[in-house]
Structures are given as structure tokens and as C-alpha cells.
Amino acid sequence: AYNNSCPSIFIVFNTTFENMLRILLLMGVLNAPANSDRLTALDFICIYGNKCKVLDSNLHGNNEFGFAEFANKREKIAEAIKLAVKNAYVDVEQGQDGFVYSLNDRGEKIIAAIQSPYVKSYMLGAKIITRKFARTSDEDILKYISKMATESKEA
Are 3 and 113 in contact (CB under 8 A)? Predict the structure, then answer.
């Protein structure tokens, strides 16, 4: 359904705003604060679940870029996190390995207001992926993506 309170989600593609909305959705599924690397990796797997051999399809369709996008993704997600912090949608804490981020009440209200088939698909994939990688270190998730890229025809 089209949501007038947040119409931009339907006309933006790979902007800081869109990335922020996806990261908020992902944080809404995670049961613990996460650092930028973990959010970047999990978001990538949510989008390219089939390429990463975790989901039945790729949320952003099949294209030749996929793994090549991952190189730029860290910077894009870092910008999205900054926007979420600036808008007070997430809480920031100092963790063992740097800053970790978690959704706060204001962020929860934002994700509750966003309804679309895309959001439902992303949330479903995020639930599967966060369960699969719940006990996997950030480093091992990044190694997994690297292994999938190497096995892929794109490499």
C-alpha cells in the first residue's frame, strides 16, 4: 500500500534515505546492537539473498553488479547510519570494537509507519538472515560474502 507519510521510499533508489530506511528495518529485526560492518553485511545479504545462497531470490533483482556493489556499501551504510543518528532514530553506544547502533522508540515509529510489499519482503529476508548469522562474528560474515563473491561468476 502507498503510504503518504513517507512517499519518498517509492521514488528513491540507493540514496542515503533509502539505505537508512533499510538499516532501520534491519535494526528492528536484530535483537542486539550492531556495528556498521555487521549492518552493512547483513543488509547486503538481505538484498542479494539468492546470490549469497541464503534466500530464494534477490530483493533488488538479478543484475551483473551484486558483489561489486559491496565495495561501496560500507560508505553508503555509514552515511545512512549518520542520517539515522542525526534524526534521533537510533541510539549509539561505545562497544568493545567501536560504536554500536540500535533502534530506539522514535525509529520504531518510523518503521511501523512504512508499509509496502518491498518492506514486507525485506523484513522477511532480514528475519531469516539474522537468525542464520546470529552466532556468526562480523569478520566471519564478511568472509562469507567474500567466499560467495569468489564462487560467483562475477569474480
Answer: yes
DSSP annotation of 44: H
Q: Distance between CA atoms of 20 and 80, rounded to whole angstroms?
A: 4
The total number of residues shown for the chain amounts to 155
- What is the C-alpha separation between 86 and 45, in angstroms, rounded? 26
Taking each helix axis from N to C end, the angle separating 16-29 and 36-47, rounded to the nearest 10 degrees, works out to 100
- Whole-angstrom distance, CA of residue 112 vs CA of residue 120: 11
| Rounded Cα gap, residues 143 and 155, in angstroms | 15
Amino acid sitting at position 51: K
Q: What is the pLDDT along the chain (155 residues), one digit of tens a residue?
A: 434 444 444 444 678 999 999 999 999 999 789 999 999 999 999 988 888 888 787 777 666 666 777 778 889 999 999 999 999 999 999 988 789 999 999 999 999 999 899 899 999 999 999 999 999 999 999 999 999 888 876 44
Q: Are 53 and 151 in contact (CB under 8 A)?
A: no
Which residue, 34, 14, 24, is CA-closest to 122? Answer: 24
Q: Could you tell me which of 106, 87, 109 has the C-alpha nearest to residue 20?
A: 87
